[in-house]
Specification:
mainly beta; Immunoglobulin-like; 2 domains; 5-stranded antiparallel β-sheet; 0% helix; 52% strand
Length: 229
């Protein structure tokens, strides 16, 4: 199966006089004709998970002299879990067939195909996380540690988009009220999984402690701990 952008051609018996029927060509005077199919746009893209790609998938079908072949059947498809395709499965008067590809809701790399009966071309797209919509605590809450010392486990939070995908590059601020100690990493960016880690050093006076993790436009979460003598 060829990668996006590779031209595929084959000699087939097409019309000398092309009769446009509801389903394609009818042969009235068979004559071997070379058909060329090529990806003309949208071959390799990236977009937000769960959203349509910015560019259409475009295939062009011509004869060997470069003249477009209209109403030639081209079928666009994606495998299960690869999102959805919306298309008109024949070429227009310019020999062009197009499709709109809506990516699945999970990040990753996906493939779509365009098949003409002659051969199959591939399109590739990478689904990336959308804007962050949720900040959540993964680990490190409700710990007990010695006053003035670091807690035994790191505090771990995660930023995700509306589909639960980790959002990379989001700045998380960790702030402790006065007397509640401090985060050794008060500002940090989320990694490729949307995760941020920090070590919490407790305040010097035994008792309940609080640390706040904040992200602009997402609000904050409150993390608690208990400092012992």
């Amino acid at each position: 199966m060829p990668i996006a952008g590779v031209v595929r051609s084959r000699s087939v018996a097409l019309v000398a006089t092309l009769a446009l029927s509801g389903c394609g060509y009818q042969v009235t005077d068979p004559e071997p004709t070379e058909i060329v199919m090529v990806v003309a746009g949208g071959g390799v893209q990236a977009g937000v998970a769960g959203a349509p790609l910015a560019s259409l998938l475009v295939v062009r079908v011509t004869d060997r002299t470069g003249d477009p072949i209209p109403r030639f059947p081209v079928t666009f498809a994606v495998p299960p879990g690869g999102g959805t395709i919306s298309s008109r499965n024949v070429t227009d008067l310019r020999g062009i067939a197009v499709a709109s590809w809506t990516l699945p809701t999970r990040v990753g790399t996906y493939r779509a195909t365009a098949a003409s009966g002659l051969d199959t071309l591939q399109f590739a797209a990478t689904a990336t996380a959308g804007p962050g919509t949720l900040l959540q605590l993964l680990e490190g809450g409700n710990q007990t540690g010695v006053a003035g010392q670091a807690l035994p486990a790191e505090v771990v939070v995660r930023v995700t988009d509306q589909y639960g995908n980790g959002v990379v590059g989001t700045t998380v601020a960790f702030v402790a009220p006065l007397g509640n100690g401090m985060a050794l990493t008060p500002l940090a960016e989320s990694n490729s999984s949307g995760v941020v880690r920090t070590t919490w050093v407790l305040g010097t006076v035994p008792g309940p402690m609080e640390l706040r993790a904040k992200v602009a436009n997402l609000g904050r979460i409150f993390i608690t701990a208990t400092a012992t003598p």
